[in-house]
From TrEMBL:
<protein>
    <submittedName>
        <fullName>Armadillo/beta-catenin-like repeat protein</fullName>
    </submittedName>
</protein>
<dbReference type="InterPro" id="IPR011989">
    <property type="entry name" value="ARM-like"/>
</dbReference>
<dbReference type="InterPro" id="IPR016024">
    <property type="entry name" value="ARM-type_fold"/>
</dbReference>
């Protein structure tokens, strides 16, 4: 039975990522809600023997979620967000000693690479789902999901400054920042609630500060981080929390005055820092001091 499931998910994955057949395949999968539900259910299969089945289901869903109508169908499945969240696990939650690169080789072992693939597809599914306002609300209300997303924005100094860091490690940070930016920029009461929730999670602001402080080699990560701050600053309490985080305003000023290379302007880091400082100073006496 497991062998047939494996063959089935392999076939769906193959046609879902094929340049020739992808569009038709995803449309046909999307209109058969029982297939979509089955793929979502497979995300919960955490047995090592079912690893490839789960991975194929995750990759197919990441493609499926890229189509608006299908993304709504996925999010409407009871327990879908909880199932997607099971894909997200950091190395630090499994092996705390591997927090900093240099503790092990930069090359991934099999466990790390498999873990990265699940994280990659989990974040990609959520990012695609987050294009819809209502889905952003569901992501925010799923227990424990926001802290997991924010955990992926954690990047140590060695990771950010290394010349030999694996592209996949930076991609994970980038993907999580992109998703967080989308959630923080949500409009209406849903957006207000999300900004409050995001800013109240203890590591959100400090993780961003570390990227601003040590991420000079990665201007795109810095720009995404600053844009998250600008969006969070729409909330008065978040504005005070950001300003009260040691060194945060100083790091924004450092970027504003130190980044003058053409590459920095191309990525918009300096302009983003100026806009963030303006937002944080607006109607905040404590931040102006």
């Amino acid at each position: 039975m497991r062998q047939w499931k494996l063959i089935g998910t392999r076939v769906l994955r193959h046609f879902s990522i094929s340049a020739r057949f992808s569009e038709d395949t995803l449309q046909k999968i999307g209109i058969d809600i029982s297939v979509v539900e089955r793929l979502v259910e497979m995300l919960n299969w955490t047995s090592h023997k079912e690893e490839e089945i789960r991975l194929s289901a995750a990759e197919t869903l990441s493609k499926l979620a890229g189509m608006k109508q299908n993304s709504l169908r996925i999010a409407a499945i009871p327990g879908a967000m909880e199932s997607i969240s099971t894909l997200l696990r950091t190395n630090r939650s499994l092996i705390p000693a591997v927090d900093e690169i240099g503790e092990k080789n930069l090359e991934f072992d099999h466990l790390s690479y498999t873990l990265w693939k699940f994280n990659h597809f989990g974040l990609l599914i959520l990012k695609n789902l987050a294009h819809d306002h209502d889905n952003c609300g569901k992501i925010g209300s799923t227990r424990g999901l926001l802290p997991r997303i924010i955990d992926f924005t954690h990047a140590k100094e060695k990771l950010l400054k290394s010349k030999n860091v694996a592209h996949s490690q930076i991609l994970t940070v980038k993907r999580s920042l992109q998703l967080l930016k989308m959630l923080a920029s949500t409009i209406g009461t849903t957006g207000e609630h999300l900004r409050r929730e995001i800013s109240e999670i203890v590591f959100t602001i400090s993780n961003i500060r570390d990227i601003l402080k040590h991420g000079e080699r990665h201007p795109l990560l810095q720009k995404l981080s600053i844009e998250i701050l600008t969006n969070l600053a729409l909330d008065d309490d978040a504005t005070e929390r950001i300003g009260g985080t040691g060194g945060m305003l100083q790091e924004l000023f450092n970027i504003l005055f130190k980044h003058s290379e053409p590459e920095d302007w191309k990525h918009g880091v300096t302009v983003a820092a100026a806009e963030a400082l303006a937002m944080l100073a607006l109607e905040s006496k404590s931040n102006c001091h």
